[in-house]
Design brief:
The structure holds two protein chains of two kinds.
Chain A: E1 13-15, H1 19-31, E2 35-36, H2 37-40, H3 46-51, E3 57-59, E4 63-64, E5 74-75, H4 85-95, E6 100-105, H5 116-129, E7 133-137, H6 145-152, E8 158-160, H7 170-173, H8 179-191, E9 196-202, H9 208-220, E10 223-230, H10 247-259, E11 264-267, H11 277-289
Parallel strand pairs in A: 3-6, 4-5, 6-7, 7-8, 8-9, 9-10, 10-11
Antiparallel strand pairs in A: 2-3
Helix pairs in contact in A: 4-5, 5-6
Chain B: E1 3-6, E2 17-23, E3 30-31, E4 36-41, E5 46-50, E6 55-60, E7 67-69, E8 73-77
Antiparallel strand pairs in B: 1-8, 2-4, 2-7, 3-6, 4-5, 6-8
Classes of the chains: A alpha/beta, B mainly beta.
């Protein structure tokens, strides 16, 4: 157990629900043998979202082939994909009565298709079983157009891929990734006419100018939605928190981002790419059908 | 009737323990349902634990600075 940071600011505090409020989602995930990024990444919003009856599914196992320094997900050599997993995700979506289904994954550099096939099958399986909107949050597939297109061809309602931080910090935050490659993925997704979304964590050592430049890059790439949240350190072995960004600054960045033309912006200390994703998705659909409102 | 306040289990691979950082209420004090009893800290954030029922705080099982595992009893209410 690491030393409690003396500097945890007062706004990094949430209410813990009772076991009974969390149990239905926990039971569904356990019975259907599904992982959630909520649990695997130790998301501080887990309690709030589970108590509300929602979770973000993480497919392709619980072991990631990357070594990003911000992430609590297990790293190492993963197992082969489970062909029954897409159907189980669909079962969970039905059981949980989800109106918006978010599916993410670990990075699978070991697979020839990077896991894109499993994403495609999962989107399809969910759509066969329910009328929910579907959002994917994908890895970069090492920039392979074929794999990006394999997921894009299922036409997810939102195609999310996180740049995570500003380019200068990539070597220390996302050493196996490439900022330009991530932008290219988003550009390709937007080029297919899909809603492209991305996200960044703040408090890793970036400057505001760098954040604004990255937001500009995302707009240029065709991103229509962006999420900004506070980076929180999962363990002493992970990247340190350089700064706790106050809520007022998140609010200011939200306004700046909207001024840049993003149709959907979520910005706040506890904002995560999949947090309240349904609400953001609904906004984007409205923006598409009612331009100018 | 005794009511146990437990640290909820968040399932597989989720954080499985938390440290008690501060008790807002003392043994013997009356509490309302929903009133914050204590604050706990996990790897990433602080959490307040609200009282699941109205009553009197009878016993504190995990003191400030101590770590509790999920599922364990933090306090007993009556």
């Amino acid at each position: 157990m690491k030393d409690r940071p003396e500097t945890l600011p007062p706004w990094i505090r949430k209410r813990l629900p009772r076991q009974e409020e969390l149990q239905p989602v926990l039971d569904t995930l356990r019975e259907l043998r599904l992982a959630s990024v909520c649990q695997e990444a130790h998301c501080p919003n887990l309690c709030e979202c589970f108590a509300r009856g929602t979770a973000t599914f993480m497919i392709l196992g619980r072991v990631c082939t990357r070594n990003c320094t911000f992430c609590a997900v297990h790293k190492g050599a993963p197992l082969p994909p489970d062909p029954e997993e897409p159907a189980r995700v669909a079962d969970a979506a039905v059981r949980m009565r989800l109106r918006h289904v978010v599916v993410t994954s670990v990075t699978r550099d070991d697979l020839p298709d990077g896991g894109s096939g499993q994403f495609a099958r999962t989107v399809r399986a969910v759509r066969e079983r329910c009328g929910a909107t579907v959002e994917v949050l994908t890895p970069d597939f090492q920039g392979r157009a074929e794999d990006i297109d394999r997921v894009a061809s299922e036409q997810p309602d939102v195609f999310n891929h996180n740049v995570e931080t500003v380019p200068r910090l990539y070597p220390e935050v996302r050493p196996m990734a490439d900022y330009a490659r991530s932008l290219d993925l988003l550009r390709r997704v937007a080029g297919h006419g899909l809603v492209a979304k991305s996200g960044m964590m703040l408090g890793l050592g970036e400057t505001e100018d760098e954040v604004l430049a990255a937001l500009g890059d995302l707009r240029d790439a065709g991103c229509r939605a962006v999420t900004l949240g506070q980076y929180l350190q999962p363990s002493p072995r992970h990247h340190a928190v350089a700064r706790f960004v106050p809520p007022e600054e998140f609010e200011r960045l939200r306004q700046l981002a909207e001024g840049m033309g993003f149709e959907g912006v979520a910005s706040g200390p506890f904002v995560r790419s999949s947090y309240n994703a349904g609400k953001l998705a609904a906004q984007l659909v409205r923006a598409r059908t009612c331009p100018g409102k | 009737m005794a009511y146990e306040v437990k640290l909820p289990d968040l399932g597989k691979d989720a954080p499985d323990k938390a440290e008690v950082s501060f008790w807002y209420i003392e043994v013997g004090e009356k509490v309302e349902e929903g009133q914050d009893l204590l604050e706990m800290v996990t790897d990433k954030a602080a959490f307040t634990v609200p009282s699941p029922a109205s009553g009197t705080l009878k016993e504190i099982r995990v003191q400030e600075g101590e770590v509790a595992k999920v599922g364990s009893v933090l306090a007993v209410l009556e």
